[in-house]
Amino acid sequence: MNAKVFPSRLSGRVEAVPSKSYAHRMLIAAALADRPTRINRIGRSQDVCATIGGLIALGATIERKGEDVIVHPVSAPPASALVDCNESGSTLRFLIPVAAALGVEATFVGKGRLAERPVAALVDALGQAGVRIEGTGLPLSICGRLTSDGVEVDGGLSSQYVTGMLFALAAQGGNRRLKVKGKRVSESYLALTIDVLARFGVRVTATAEGYTVVGNLRSPGEITVEGDWSNAAFFAVCGALSGTIEIVNLNPHSLQGDRRIVSILEEAGAAVEAGDDFVRVSAGKLKAISADCEQIPDLVPVVAVLTAFAEGRSVLTGVARLKLKESDRLTQTVRLIEGLGGAASATEHRIVVDGQSALQGGQTIEGTNDHRLVMAGAVGAAATTLGATITDAEAVHKSYPDFWEVFEATGGRYELDV
Fold first, then answer.
1. C-alpha distances in angstroms, 320 versus 132, 192, 382?
2. Marked catalytic residue, from 258, 298, 370, 392
3. Which residues form the Enolpyruvate transferase domain (predicted)?
């Protein structure tokens, strides 16, 4: 499905969608806890639905109550399970170790580019701990129970491997150790994991070798998912490029690393006002920036769009892992900027954008079934002179199902070509 986006001036009020990162983690902790948990504002993104389905396959019972869920924890894990991760890398990498901790003989399947996203670090870690694994991609099958202490996992490629292992060790209870080799990347996401485990009564402490995991998972009874800074960033950049956008239901003290979009917008010259639960962004004279994006990979496409409209040369570093996302996001971000009529280039570790105050657009931008590229493309296309056509417009359902409706409600003009 294609979206033809017309030049538009966006303004208005947007409610932030629930944080996908927090939702995944709360669901898993609740499924492994001692009693039921009500999770408020869980959202309906495809990725979160994949985790719900995966946990049900592993023995949890999850009831929908409008925008909330009640999670009844796993009491008797099934002997075997088929876990469909759809296109969710988080679901896959979090639930492989969890299934091993539960002793479930599980087969993991998925679709799209998920089969190409690496899981070798988990395969190696679990294999060394005595779990039998068949396959290096999808489908991937595991057999055996994770019981070893002092498991070692490589944290240099993705923090999701570490998160999955932390949940697996927490599920076993007691006092456990996780060794992490290599550089620990995306530490803000690990902070979310540690925060959720703490809310469920498990204390995770960083050590020189990795982490200690102490305690048993105990339900807080009720918990609420806070607003998502990653997806709020798209409309925040809309405000910087055209009118004034206010986004509510955002925690200004959030552990989400993508909260950094506020300082990036300020550095680029946008007018930003932040309150107790909102951020308001208005257009200003934009200027080039330099940003290390290693800890905020999900922001790169929309930050690149922002810099395309900022006069001067912007440099985004720490982007090597973008090649392993829902698309080769490194290459596709450059093509996105070019599709807007801008100039950009990339090496393995950085993206360079030569920004201009106005871009013509008028081209077709390949969404490559990547939700963040599609949304960033819509933001940029609305700010061009001629607009642009974006393919795979339906990819937004992965994280922001109502994106196009909210885009229209704030003044964005588009037509869908089914």
1. 31, 23, 28
2. 298
3. 7-406
Q: Is 328 one of the catalytic residues? A: no
This prediction's pTM: 0.96
C-beta separation of 284 from 270 below 8 A: yes
**What is the per-residue pLDDT across 324-366, written as a single tens digit (0 to 9) for each?**
665 689 999 999 999 999 999 999 899 999 999 999 999 999 9
Q: Is 117 annotated as belonging to a binding site?
A: yes
Q: Compute the radius of gyration of the chain from its Cα atoms.
A: 21
CATH topology match: 2-17+227-417 vs 20-224:
yes
Q: Is 183 annotated as a binding residue?
A: no
Count how many Cα atoms sit within 13 Å of the Cα of residue 414 in the half-sphere of its side chain.
32
Helix (H) or strand (E) holding 404: helix 403-409
With contact defined as beta carbons under 8 Å apart, do 279 and 267 qualify? Answer: no
Domain 20-224, CATH homologous superfamily name and number: Enolpyruvate transferase domain (3.65.10.10)
Nearest-angstrom CA–CA distance, 184 and 368: 29
Domain boundaries, the chain: 2-17+227-417, 20-224
2-17+227-417 in CATH: which number? Answer: 3.65.10.10
